[in-house]
Amino acid sequence: MLRQIxxxxxxxxxxxxxxxxSLSLKVNIGAEDDEGNAVTQDxxxxxxDRQDDEGQDAEGGQLDEGAVKDVHxxxxxxxxxxxxxxxxxxxxGDLPPLLGDWKLNVEGxxxxxxxxxxxxxxxxxxxxxxxxxxxxxxxxxxxxxxxEEMQIFLGINMVMGYIRYPRARMYWSxxxxxxxxxxxxxxxxxxxDQILGYLHFxxxxxxxxxxxxxxIDEQIIPFTGLLSIKQYMPKKPKPWGVKAWxxxxxxxxxxxxxxxxxxxxxxxxxxxxxxxxxxxRFCDDIKHKNHKVFFDNYFCNISLIEALKDxxxxxxxxxxxxxxxxxxxxxxxxxxxxxxxRGACCVVSDNANISVTRWLxxxxxxxxxxxxxxxxxxxxxxxxxHMGGVDLIDxxxxxxxHRCRNKRWYIGVFFHFLDVTMVNAWRLYLMSGLEKxxxxxxxxxVARALINAGSLQQSRRGRPSATPPPVCTGNHWPQLTEVKNxxxxxxxxxxxxxxxxxxxxxVPLCPGCFVNFxxxxxxxxxxxxxxxxxxxxxxxx
Length: 541
Prior knowledge:
Blueprint: E1 19-20, E2 23-26, E3 85-87, H1 111-118, H2 121-137, H3 147-162, H4 181-184, H5 189-198, E4 213-222, E5 230-232, E6 240-249, E7 254-259, H6 273-282, E8 291-295, H7 302-310, E9 313-317, H8 327-330, H9 334-340, E10 345-349, E11 355-360, H10 378-386, H11 389-399, H12 409-431, H13 439-458, E12 478-480, E13 487-488, E14 497-498, E15 500-502, H14 514-540
């Protein structure tokens, strides 16, 4: 029995799992207690037995993903060769506490307040601006979507998530049993289709401090249309779709995400490979606070655990056998573990306090009917308890998802993250200690609040204003582009081609057609505003 590990707790958890009949090989990076006892973990987690061993890298190529790309080592990482030694497997689970206080940064007590904190008004204004600009570029000058209409539009799509019809137009049907007053009275079906057809955005606040235990995993946003970045993951409930990297807390709150756009559009791989760099990038805002991060064998390798250790982060993850850096030679063989029986394990650690555990367990850890019990080690319970944050998000989103299909893939991505925002707002509501409310009633409350708020602001009493709000504000100036071929002028009365564009509208315009084009837009907007105010006055009086 070796006891050469310093007294200070050096928890660098890592579980390495290799599916091999009933034998599980796992690595616990770093779980040592004050006496230097190594940590063991079990293989009952659904993440532990994940098969991703087709010999492909994260990009879908035929490279061995187990090979770590040590192109440029970060200063402070271990440069010497790993020297492995045996350790005993008693570990009581002492972990360094999280540095700093956890706090909730939300003002308000109603469900809609939590949603608006994550989806603020400036984000809605950004979507409105890009939607109107996109419609203008497509030749629809009089769309003129307002913030109130966008709030109603978002609320309607939330209602469609928990009240499901086969077709979207059925919500506006006049037949008994189909007509949904909450949606039909808030917005016409034609207006809904117009906004959906031109919905556009370019960009997507801190509500709570990061939790102590977090996990990093992949997520699939379902999409079956033609798309170059579409991925196939057979073990996901929806195997085809757009892949996203996600960092989530144990509670199921999503902290960060990044949509994967293929190998040609990713950032340059520096030193840990693509998957390792994803983990390091996602952990750059939780350094030196003793956070515990969990991930599976798709991301995990010993170099990654060493890099996280240098950043003050304790990592836990399943890993593949070809990433053991010599630990496999010190571990007991499969035959020896089988002879010892179920629950047998072997622990080795290196000179960087990284412990590797291989154990044998193919069923439950405790036998019923008063028979003997098997020891379930503390790191295993930590991994099984804290690894499923991303899966918990997927489970909540799948309860009441937005199901309206669209050929534009980014529309599906937008509505997916709108559902994720709703789940995050619900999680914050539960964390606040207010009266408990399930996700269905929370989503319904937010949807009603958005629809009613937009309807009340649109249906104000009184005579409509004679002066419409300004439209053509901003940098509406001609700009000469460097394009090779001239484009058709966007003014309907002009048939010429030009290399000039409007800096604000991003449409080709002749210098002589500039005033006439923007005057038409202002008149169309003025007419639409007048029509809305007159209709609102008729409904009111």
